């Protein structure tokens, strides 16, 4: 069973275990009943029909990777890395206090190297409610993006996620990467990107994101693609991208 590495809104371990026990029990009961009664032709035909339909609709590049035709729209303030005209778009929802989100950045750097000029990587903030400093950090990275220093601030925030993401310390990180501090302070202290972060949060909820990191991967000129709600491995990203490029 694939272990999904992510930071979720609540601890679901108990419910997952309980659900698995119930599911296994039901399967045993059904199999026992079928061994006595015999399979129903109608049921078997329905299963075969559904399987044949699903087989032709979409290829699953890796276990548990989901097909989706619900792609979040891009916002004017969304930071973008890679080729703005890239054939493949990856939308990432992430949180600066999430360790799995930090780990995913290394994987995404490899993807950008492996697919030069083909990837448009879009960042969207999804600060989880129980992370005290993520929302202000999210505003800070958008303020930095306005000065074309998104990746530098993103790295600073992830590098310091276990040290401090207090606004006063974020301002020190801003100095370290050479931001215009008057503009940055006005942006951060004035909450000029608070509404943009709130829109990202609303989009995450609207499009079924309930954990971070989560990724939407699709051909840039298409409205269909894949949804990966965990810290995908390099091979999972490659398989998904390769399936789209075929």
Could you name the key traits of this structure?
alpha+beta; Glutaredoxin; six-stranded mixed β-sheet
Number of strands: 8
Instruction: Report the CATH topology name.
Output: Glutaredoxin
Query: What percentage of residues falls in helices of 4 or more residues?
Result: 40-55%
Strand order of the largest sheet: 2-8-7-4-5-3
What is the CATH C level class, in words? Alpha Beta
Write the layout of secondary structure elements.
Blueprint: E1 7-8, H1 13-37, H2 41-57, E2 66-68, E3 80-82, E4 88-94, H3 99-114, E5 119-125, H4 134-145, H5 150-159, H6 167-176, H7 181-189, H8 194-206, E6 211-212, E7 214-219, E8 225-228, H9 234-245
Parallel strand pairs: 4-5
Antiparallel strand pairs: 1-6, 2-8, 3-5, 4-7, 7-8
Helix pairs in contact: 4-5, 4-7, 6-7
Question: Can you characterise this structure?
Answer:
This protein is α+β, with helices and mostly antiparallel strands and 246 residues long. The protein has one domain (66-245): Glutaredoxin. It has helices at 13-37, 41-57, 99-114, 134-145, 150-159, 167-176, 181-189, 194-206, 234-245; strands spanning 7-8, 66-68, 80-82, 88-94, 119-125, 211-212, 214-219, 225-228. The strands form two sheets. It has a six-stranded mixed beta sheet. It has a two-stranded antiparallel ribbon with strand order 1-6. Strand 7 and strand 8 (225-228) form a beta hairpin. Helix 4 runs antiparallel to helix 5 and helix 6 (167-176) packs antiparallel against helix 7 (181-189). The longest helix is centred in the first third of the chain and has 25 residues, at 13-37. The two termini are 28 Å apart.
